[in-house]
Amino acid sequence: MTWVIVAAFIYPAPQQQIGDASRIFYFHVPQAWVAVLAFCFSLVGSINYLRKGTLVDDDRARVAAELGTLFCILATVTGSIFAKVTWHSFWNWDPRETSIFILLLIYGAYFALRSAIDGPEKRARLAAVYAIFAFVTVPFLIFVVPRVLPSLHPSDSIVNESGKITMSGATALIFFPSLAVFTALFVWIYTLGLRVSQRQRAITEEAMQ
Amino acid sequence: MTSNYTAMAVTLVIWIGLFLYLIVLDRKTKKLEEKK
């Protein structure tokens, strides 16, 4: 991560049209990627809970949804800073901005639902069903809507329509390690969050006996 | 260019802070798991 931060701010020359604001790209896109990955983990945890009924899977779904929301907020904030520099406004209701806003509302409702239900089993079951429906919107909002509607976001900054990588070697040298370290950071926090949840559960069970 | 260095320094401080926090949390969790 240290390499990514130092290289992102110093190594590549500023982009011709948007200048130094282009450096946000090395953080904004990996954060959005991790958010989608985390929501995917949440979906898998939810499906597994409904299949097996073990509360560990509910913990997996919840921790992943928490991290997905956190990275979604980070992507929104970095995107807003980029929008202010590039499009002169923090918020433009661009299809991608609108999509991420709806996504935040959907996952905000997930946590509201969880906090409104007493009883771990009932909460886990309802939250799992909701999380599955919530994830159905993710590919639609992240991948379909921004491509169907006209958008301020460039559509070919990573790959073009024929699937070919469009970025230069210098950009790729920072962007792909950034994707890898953000993914590793997510996995680290996710496993840590799971371990803390399991300890909490064990302590609660010990106290009840 | 100076603003780039400032932004880099701030980002590095945030990253190192987060990294140290996660390491401490990791150790504390490990200790709790060992107590079990």
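The two ends of chain A are 45 Å apart (CA to CA).
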